Amino acid sequence: MSITIERVQAPREVEVTSEVLSSLINLAGRQRMLSQRIVLKAMLAFQQFDGALATARETLRTFEDSHTMLVEGRDGLPGLFSPALRDAFHGSGKVAARIANFITLATAALEAIGQASPRAEAALTALIQAVDPLLAHLHDVTAVYEQESRRIARQQKKEQQALIERIKAIAKEAHIVSFNGQIVASRAQVTGREFAVVAGVMTTITKELEAVVSAFVKKTAAKEG
To answer: Which parts pass through the membrane (predicted)?
Structure first.
């Protein structure tokens, strides 16, 4: 009898662009505003302000949809792409569970208000009491997105620098080869003419490569400045 042991691998970290990170930070920050708007419109709906209930329901749908996009990903967004973000939502703080509870409370409050239920006031009170603690957690989540953005920026800068150094090394090696080739060609006289042409082409390529590296370095420095 054989026993098969399955290895459970941690989710791989997804590479994200600066544009995607900016969208994620904005989306996470907007959740705070939406949660407050839900409560405000729910209070106005309880006081029977025209249109407040419909606005509250629409804002709740937007809040819930945004949460799904952040956690699961959609429309080019990667979801929880790093261990830090997975821990922020599903770790000890249980932010994802708290958000789900807020959505449940908001749904119940708006339903009770819409039906003019005797439970409406109690449901609204429960929703109001939940929003301030939630705001603190949403703020912490946004901070994690910002930290991830800075971490990835540092990592990308390090990778770019390593690439630049590698290209410089290749250019240096190519320059040495082309120089030695020209020496060999000059010694070979007539039989080395074709080789001299090749060596000359290598020299041209080396110069172009060095120019590309220089332009890339200047462009990167300008972006950082």
So the answer is: none
